[in-house]
Amino acid sequence: MLDGARLTAYDVLDGVSSRAAYANLLLPQLLRERQLDERDAAFATQLAYGTLRAEGTLDAILTGLVSRPLAELDPRVLDLLRLGAYQLIDLRVPSHAAVDTTVDLTRAIVGAGASGLVNAVLRKVATGGDRAQWLATLDRTGDEGLALATNHPRWIVAAWRDALGGDAELEPALLADDAPPEVHLVARRVDRAELAVESGGDPGPWSAFAVRMHGGDPGRLPAVRSGAAAVQDEGSQLAALLLSRAPLDGPDGAWLDMCAGPGGKAGLLATVRPDGVRLTAADRAPHRAELVRHALAGADDVEVLAADSTAPPWAPGTFDRVLLDAPCTGLGALRRRPEVRWRRTPDDVAGLVDLQTALLDSALTSVRVGGVVAYVTCSPHSAETVAVVDAVAGRDDVEVLPVAPLFPEVPDMARGDYGQLWPHRHGTDAMFMALLRRTG
What we know:
Layout: H1 4-19, H2 23-34, H3 38-53, H4 55-63, H5 75-89, H6 95-109, H7 112-128, H8 131-138, H9 142-150, H10 154-164, H11 170-176, E1 184-187, H12 192-199, E2 202-203, E3 210-212, H13 222-226, E4 229-231, H14 234-245, E5 254-257, H15 264-272, E6 278-283, H16 286-295, E7 302-306, E8 319-325, H17 340-343, H18 346-366, E9 367-377, H19 386-393, E10 398-401, E11 414-415, E12 418-420, H20 423-426, E13 432-438
Parallel strand pairs: 5-6, 5-8, 6-7, 8-9
Antiparallel strand pairs: 1-3, 1-4, 2-3, 9-13, 10-13, 11-12, 12-13
């Protein structure tokens, strides 16, 4: 009989590699379907997420042990080799258990012929020792060595150094991407203290609406099932709260969330807006707009549009406050989406900058003179954060408002006049925030 936890982990790896699935969406689905007990579910999660994070390091090890390029292997065999190697070098599972169970999986999934290759290669991995010993054997230095030690591609190592302004926090920031994240909840229509008791969690340190869980399935909580609470990273909550905290002169009756899907930030904005404020939430994709409608169910004076915000249906200057949660690489959420670090490339960053720039121009057109635009991304990469905002900050009709003074309770978030959260500093996703006022 095949090991249920290991089979589930393999199925996640296969879904990611063969169907471009997202592990954080596929794994919960498989765990519900297969009804693994708590121990096996935790082990499957550790195996799947850990193997995905460590892909680059595992491949560097396997490259020297397989007689042909890894790209020429059956993708299923490569996923199985990674799964077995991860157990050996990072979890220190006894070699007989890691090798034998992976060989059994290979025989059942691929066939007997492939099981011999997997057996031979994993025994070589086991002979080489744990991660520290393998890193010494690989003997890579500089950024390449740091990339292997922290499970990142080299280009992200360089990007994080640039965003952090040097090497002082570089390794802790990279290692924080590898730590299993807590589940964060947002209390929308329920008292936060009650949500903390119901979930067994603690109030978040930064957002007045956040609760940090310490384990368990948030989908089983009555408050989450009813929509009174939802899963939302505390950094994303702060990004939404930035819009509401921005100083504003003149009327304050119309707010816009430009790229609102799937609706988390819009849901919080609906909660914190003053009486009389009408909230419009738009998303280009109709199915994402439908998710926003679900998130805003029960809220009064809201409008949800399936609309392209680069060519919006509303008139210029319609809104007093605009939130632009711009489409981005998602590199700020590597803890929650471990495969993204290997799926994204530098070309993806360049390809998104034009869209981000167009959306920011549209946001500044959509807000009235004297109104404010909050530009946020779930990425610290300078090209899609500082560079995008700097490009408009010099305009005569734009004023940059400092972000950090609006969050005196959050330490070490200033990135010049902008705001930057980090997993290793704040225990949140690496959210970037900028605040602009239209002056003319």
